[in-house]
Structures are given as C-alpha cells and as structure tokens.
Amino acid sequence: FASSSVDPYAGETKEQRDERMAWWREARFGMFIHWGVYAVPAGTYNGEQIKGIGEWIMLRGKIPVAEYKAYAKEFNPVNYDPVAWAQLAKAAGMRYVVITSKHHDGFALFPSAVSDWDIADASPYGKDLIGPLADAARAEGLKFGLYYSQAQDWTHPGGSFWPNREKEGEGHWDEGQKGDFDSYLDAIAVPQVDEILSRYQPDILWWDTPAWMDNTRAERLLPLLETVPDIIHNNRLGGDYKGDTETPEQHIPATGFKDRDWEVCMTMNDTWGYKSYDQNWKSTKDLIQKLCDIVSKGGNFLLNVGPTAKGEIPLPSIERLQAVGRWMDVNGESIYGTTASPFYRLHWGRCTKKLHGDGATLYLHVFDWPEDGRLLVPGLKNLPVNAILLHSGEALKADSATDGEKSGVVLTLPKTAPDPYSSVIKLEVEGKL
Ligand code: FHN
C-alpha cells in the first residue's frame, strides 16, 4: 500500500497499529447512520418512485440542483433526539456510531464556514446535528465516527464529475454542476474535512467512494488526519492509500481478510437513506446470524439506520435493534473482543474464539439445534475442560467421537435450543487448537 510523508501512519509498527486498533477489534459491532436532505423526498420525485437507494435520489432522478436544494427547507428534524439514538445503539450492543457528516449530495449536517449548503444556512433547523450526537455517543461510552463523501458533491461545480460515465449523461444533469474537480476538492472537501476533524475529533473517519481520487488528491486530505491522534480511517480515500480497514458492503465475504482489519457495512432493508416505502426488511434472526457469521470470520459489523427528515429512526429499525440488544445482553461475550473461528466450516452454525495463555475459549453459535441432542465439533482434538450453555451456565457432557469420517468432540445438548436465533455454547479448551 502507498504510504508517504503525508500519511500519518507511514512507518507505523505492527505493535503501534495493534494498540491503535484495539478498541475497534474489541467493539465488533457499530451503528451506521445515513441521514440528510434526501430523507425529505424519501424515494419519490415528481410523484414517481425513484428506484434504488434513497440517498441517491438526486442522481437517479436527475433532480436539478436548485430543485434539490429546495428540499432542505423541509429538512427540519424537530424530533431529533441524539441521546435516544446513542442509547438505542448502546442497547443494541453496539460499541460505536458512524454518521454521514456529508453525503454525495454535498449537504453538511454540521455548520460549515466554506459552504451555505449546510444545516446552519439551508435548513430551518439551523443548528449543528453532529456535535450533539458525538457528545451523546461518548456519554454512553461509545466511540464516534464520521462518514465524509470526499470525492462527490452533486450540488457543487466540479463535484459530480463522472469521467467514465459522461457518455451516459450521468456526469452532469444540471449545467450548474459543471466545474473543475480539483477546485471542488480545494474549496469544499479539504476545508470541510479539516472542520469536522478539528471540531469533533472523531475516532473514525469513514471516507466514501474513492472514485477518481488519485494519490496526489488523496495526499491533499491525508495530512489532516494528524488533527486526531490515533484516528482510524478506511480503505475508501482513494489512490493507493488503503487506510486501516477493508469495507465489504452489503455482503459477507466467504473468508476474512488476511492481515487486514475489515468491517461489513449493511442496511436492514433496501436503502441507506430513508425511503417512505421500504422493501425487504431483514429479520432479527438474519441480523443476529449475520453478526455471528461476520465476527466468526474476524470482522466487524456496521449496521445502518436511515432516520426521517423529522429526526426519527424508523420503528422497524428500532424493533430490530432492541431485539438484537436482548440477544447481545446474554451472548455479547461471544462477540466482543473475539477473533476468527479455528474451524474451516461448521454446518450447524459459527464459532468465535478468545486465545489465552495455555488454551482458548471457544463460543459455538448454534443456528441449527440438533434434534438428536448430539453436536459434533469436527476437528476439535482436545476434550474441553469445561462446556456450558452460555445463557444458563448449564454444564454439557463432552466426548471424543467420530461421526462418519469426521473426528472431533461430541457435545450432548438439551432437547430444545435456548435461543431461537443463535444459541451459544462456551468451551474452555487447553493446548493448541
Ligand atoms: O454511494 C454510497 C452509498 O450511498 C452508501 O453511502 C454506501 C455505504 O457504504 N457507500 C457508497 C456505495 O458504496
């Protein structure tokens, strides 16, 4: 990966990086928030439902800049309650929050000295939305991150330059968008990144869509990271700069990334930004099993909510987060601070682990509870010195066995699964796995 004198982490040692990433690897689970003016049209423009993700409505609907900017007058989140949002994230078992400070439409949710297309000047609300959430998150003991769309600003001249899609007419759909990309970077992106880093000191900077950023352009932004010691940033800045984390989106990779921290970002339904007609809400069971799957491969899960223009998180999101939180209350130790499964594949569920001195703690996430009460952990050589159901502490019988051609440890389980979504068994094993 590139690292130059402008990269604050050029030459960082493995020990230094491990120390800087420690809280993030412990956290494993965070809340993503996509919020902005796009919540006003909420997926509908000129009476037509615009296909695709809600925060892209300006581009998908080819909404002229002036028309789109008029929506800001209706972006008045009078019901915004950052404390409630932070408490909801905490109750869900999430340990960090990342919110869009500026998405591709260029609207800043923070007062910006370099643009009047911001919450202070363009919305009747008129007050900073970011600072209160940063304070509320930290008051709940959560870490706080900011998403910033550095390479796109569809309302600013030069900010919507799509060189590879110019021919499809997607580069600009409004004369007012024509301009020089580098001038946009210098006028907006560089000073605004400086503003949000200096003012909010976020623990994470979540760049998005590197698009046509090259090393030279990325190096205009990188030095700004010095403003926040130990800040974590992702692989979406641009050029050869890969930051600290890989960011697979809307899918779970088959395996983890070797020697790279990584985080799956995902929506609960079909859109990041609020739409008034949502399809395909994922079930609580699906979300919990995705969390177990991701963490069993050594990754983090950044799960999204898309609040309304009035500042409300949609009820289906709240219900799911509260249900996930009830599961985390009982089983969180099988997620926080764990590392990837030592087993190649478990047909009945997943596994996470915590290595220690002379052995390991293994957490088995059983999705499919065996009807015959026998669970084979294939490849586990040593009999566990202790085996319990995590939720009750009930001891389980463990025997070495072979099941067909597979050898391992067979656990004798009670008839019914303790949890409808993912029942956790805790094993203490000695020696090398
Ligand atoms: O274009 C954005 C999209 O709107 C959303 O913010 C996702 C979330 O990671 N990122 C980009 C698509 O990759």
UniProtKB/TrEMBL annotation:
One of its GO terms (molecular function) is alpha-L-fucosidase activity. Residues 9-333 form the Glycoside hydrolase family 29 N-terminal domain. Keywords: Glycosidase, Hydrolase, Signal. Its EC number is 3.2.1.51. GO terms for biological process: fucose metabolic process; glycoside catabolic process. GO terms for cellular component: lysosome. The keyword Hydrolase applies. Alpha-L-fucosidase is responsible for hydrolyzing the alpha-1,6-linked fucose joined to the reducing-end N-acetylglucosamine of the carbohydrate moieties of glycoproteins. Belongs to the glycosyl hydrolase 29 family. This is alpha-L-fucosidase.
